[in-house]
Specification:
Helix content is about 30%, strand content about 30%. By secondary structure, the chain is of the alpha+beta class. A hairpin with a 2-residue loop joins strand 4 and strand 5.
Length: about 110
């Protein structure tokens, strides 16, 4: 237990300093609750806190990492599974972690 007589900004700094460290992976592990494929290689991500985001994957489809998603049929199979997006057509499965997809959003 911490006893203090500080107030204002000084108290805020102590509270933040003593707060438990929360890793990015912990926050993202169950934050994604749904994903919806949209036209043109776009995805709508829905997060547990109620926010949503749109990711345009069109520029990534021609890269080695995502080239297998060129098939519109495969692209439409996307599902949210824990901290990953997963595409699967029964013969092929491709997955990407939520952190990676968020990085893609920031780069565009």
């Amino acid at each position: 237990m911490i006893k203090t007589t500080l107030s204002g900004d000084a108290l805020d700094q102590i509270i933040l300093y003593n707060a438990p460290r929360i890793e990015k992976e912990t926050i993202m592990s169950d934050a994604l609750v749904a994903v919806h494929p949209l036209g043109g290689y776009c995805l709508q991500l829905v997060f547990r806190n109620g926010s949503s985001a749109m990711v345009n994957m069109e520029n990534r489809i021609n890269t080695i990492r995502f080239s297998r998603l060129k098939s519109p049929e495969l692209f439409k199979t996307v599902k949210a599974e824990g901290d990953k997006l997963v595409w699967s057509d029964g013969t092929e499965t491709i997955s990407i972690y939520t952190n990676e997809i968020l990085d893609i959003m920031m780069m565009d």
